[in-house]
Amino acid sequence: MDPRDTAPDSWELEEDAEAPAAAAGLPTAFAALNVNAKPFVPNVNAPVFVPSFLQASAVEMPASDAPVENGSTEADMPTEEETWEQKEEPGGDEGGGGQEDLGSGGTCAEEGGAAGKEDEEMMEEEEEEMPLPKVAPAPPDAPKKEHVNVVFIGHVDAGKSTIGGQIMYLTGMVDKRTLEKYEREAKEKNRETWYLSWALDTNQEERDKGKTVEVGRAYFETEKKHFTILDAPGHKSFVPNMIGGASQADLAVLVISARKGEFETGFEKGGQTREHAMLAKTAGVKHLIVLINKMDDPTVNWSLERYEECKEKLVPFLKKVGFNPKKDIHFMPCSGLTGANLKDPVPECPWYTGLPFIAHLDSLPNFTRSSDGPVRLPIVDKYKDMGTVILGKLESGSISKAQQLVMMPNRHTVEVLSLLSDDVETDDASPGENLKLRLKGIEEEEILPGFILCSPDNLCHSGRTFDAQIVIIEHKSIICPGYNAVLHIHTCIEEVQITALICLVDKKTGEKSKTRPRFVKQDQVCIARLRAAGVICLETFKDFPQMGRFTLRDEGKTIAIGKVLKLVPEKD
Questions:
Q1: Which controlled-vocabulary keywords does the entry list (predicted)?
Q2: What is the rounded CA–CA span in Å between residue 381 and residue 491?
């Protein structure tokens, strides 16, 4: 609703409220009279003088013809504003005060008394300031904030969803009432510490068990950036979902529980802390923030020793995965349940001098993305809603409304009907944004997660056979040609078979062996030929890193990570 429609009511309230106050302040006002005030200069272009008994009715008038103004065209708007100014100036004391209160919200206290003494010029200035609040909610003209996708990863019950919910509350994305409702419902289930995570764990199963299953999405804004939270599941049965979430992220937040015993279980051989950090690295996350959560727990109580102990154990491991501890990793203590050190620094924690979490996210350097490249949008999910709707993160290129694109690998030509970036409708999108696209020319059944939208003049490669360099991370026995595993590449999940081992690669020197290995075992690096069960979309790692790195999983464990070196054309 236009602020101008609601103005008149509040002015009358304003006048009633100020009358007694003004009477009480008369003696002081007289004392403060400015004797050396400038002489009054009449304004020749001033509107006709309206006596005060008519003024009340004059102020009401716009309210009666408000509907017309609302329905009127843009062109009529300025004239409307001029009439306001004319109503304004004769208003004198209270009018000026009320106006100021609307304009800049709450500076009216001193202004009310001073408004009478103000010269004509000051009044003019006020008029110019007034329209500002109306401009604020219009985002299109503002420079677009950089979109950053943050994935929360870590062992089950480390507090990922709770931190996500807390951040949304602190940045005002979830209002207090909704949280109070969650808190009541959580209390009824004897789960009162879980209420924050319910902001992200929306479906019933996740709430009953307190475990995230699907990747929750939400977003929040800081001054400089627009963040999408991807809340990945920590449970080992849902790692495939977590890979899908991590493949859309630019930045990972590894959440670690500092509570005695919880950190250790998350970090041992079967724990998810190791696996998630590794998967995030293969999914192409360059920067990692390690949040050491639950610092407010009685067993920890913000102790520096425990924080350092967690840090010492993590650094060598993260180094091994491929993060550079000096550049890519940032540690910080926090508490998701109380919200300590997420937005404001903590008094209990004098030894941590860095920025709180949200401020740190805001201060990160910008990511480089090519908006002029070919369009590539791996599809994460799809559903029917007045047409076919797909979700995904735009990896490169830019998409606009009514653009013609091609869905690979089955080469359907589609048209973009509408674009939603984080549930806000836009006309065009740049790389890094999470989009919902409504498409024309394709049925929902014909799309699978892992398909890719491309620009018609530059299609992505698709095929079944490719050569890749793989690192075997953990596998008990040896791996020979004929071995089957599940391949996770960008958002696509497909069964593959290792058809041939080409050579071993020396980890230290990078030299390739002359002879073909008969098998590979844990911690070895090899180049192998893989063949997928169906046609998949992929690119070589050199051309397009986001679509050229993959993980191989088997029996619920991540066995290997790798990158695509070359695509092998099919023999007819």
A1: GTP-binding, Hydrolase, Nonsense-mediated mRNA decay, Nucleotide-binding, Protein biosynthesis
A2: 9
